[in-house]
Design a protein that fits this description.
Blueprint: H1 8-17, E1 22-25, H2 35-50, E2 54-59, H3 69-81, E3 91-92, H4 97-109, E4 113-116, H5 120-127, E5 137-138, E6 141-142, E7 163-166, H6 168-173, E8 179-183, E9 186-189, H7 190-197, E10 201-203, H8 211-221, E11 226-230, H9 237-247, E12 253-257, H10 277-282, H11 287-293
Parallel strand pairs: 1-2, 2-3, 11-12
Antiparallel strand pairs: 4-7, 5-6, 7-10, 8-9
Helix pairs in contact: 8-9
Bound molecules: glutamic acid.
Glutamic acid (GLU) binds near residues 27 and 233.
């Protein structure tokens, strides 16, 4: 379980007390920015300004099969139009694969990773077998039932052409701390990681890394002190905190903000063109209008 204080006021109070404040907005260029993204980016930028800190833009383009240069160009244009500014150069995940590999290799050398060849369908079938009961769902979907988990850590060279999973039980044993983190409203327990998260994928076969691995390394390498992002990523934070422990990296402060929803209460999706910033711009809205729409 992760519990985080999600009040922006709390976060702003926190801002006043820290010496350094570096935050980021890290969109994936797989579609147009919508109101939800605008809220996230403006909130992070506002908080950085309030703290006299730095707001960074990072492009999460690890999944090259879904990212498009035209979406990236649109993100830059929309954010500039909203009045945001950030220092150059902008970091792109696609150039960081060697960095991710080195980190994976260190986990492999410690016996914490194993190769997995299961498809989504295999996982569903194994997790829903009659003797298994109802499958548990974690931040990445069904909790991996352990089909490929070896009895002993695999020896030899780290394979490059398969998915690599974290052996969660083994990883937790290597930390020697029964309660991983509890402070400022965040509580992450070994039990939750073992039961409701399980063996997460740290390297996808097609991408060479996974979101969880890349985001933790990017945040650390960019000295991010405050991660400000939507509530939809709240559950993933426990994986990120665990990875910080495994790699010996500092833990930033996390603030998970409310999600912007459509009129029916559904959270906005990338394909929701009706709420794309570009659409509002074309219809003559001003950046002030967008701020008002998201309650800023
Ligand atoms: N690229 C991620 C997304 O668009 C955001 C990652 C993060 O903020 O940690 O959902």
């Amino acid at each position: 379980m992760v519990r985080l204080d999600s009040g922006a006021e709390h976060e702003l109070r926190l801002v006043n007390h820290c010496k350094m404040f570096i935050t980021r907005f890290a969109p994936s260029p797989t579609g147009p920015l919508h109101l939800g993204h605008a809220y996230s980016a403006m909130l992070a930028s506002d908080m950085a300004h309030a703290a006299g800190g730095t707001f960074l833009l990072r492009i999460d383009d690890l999944d090259q099969s879904r990212c498009r240069p035209e979406w990236e160009a649109q993100i830059f244009a929309d954010l500039r139009w909203l009045g945001l500014d950030w220092p150059a150069p902008v970091l792109r995940q696609s150039v960081r694969l060697p960095r991710y590999r080195v980190a994976l290799q260190s986990l492999w050398d410690r016996g914490l990773l194993y190769p997995c060849r299961c498809s989504r369908a295999d996982i569903r079938a194994a997790a829903t077998a009659p003797q298994e009961g109802a499958p548990l769902h974690g931040p990445d979907g069904i909790v991996y039932p352990g089909t490929c988990r070896p009895a002993r850590p695999p020896a030899g060279k780290m394979p490059m052409d398969v998915a690599l999973r974290l052996d969660m039980q083994h990883a937790l044993r290597s930390i020697h701390n029964p309660l991983i983190y509890i402070d400022k409203g965040i509580e992450i327990t070994v039990h939750d990681l073992a039961e409701t998260v399980g063996d997460v994928v740290l390297a996808r076969r097609d991408m060479g890394a996974s979101y969880h691995l890349s985001v933790v390394l990017d945040d650390a390498d960019q000295h991010i002190t405050h991660v400000i992002r939507g509530e939809d990523l709240r559950e993933a934070t426990q994986i990120h905190v665990l990875l910080q422990h495994l790699f010996g990296l500092p833990m930033p402060a996390y603030h998970h903000h409310r999600l912007i929803r459509d009129d029916t209460g559904k959270r906005l999706a990338k394909r929701d063109d009706a709420r794309a910033i570009a659409t509002y711009r074309a219809e003559g809205a001003s950046p002030r209008d967008i701020r008002a729409m998201v309650g800023l």
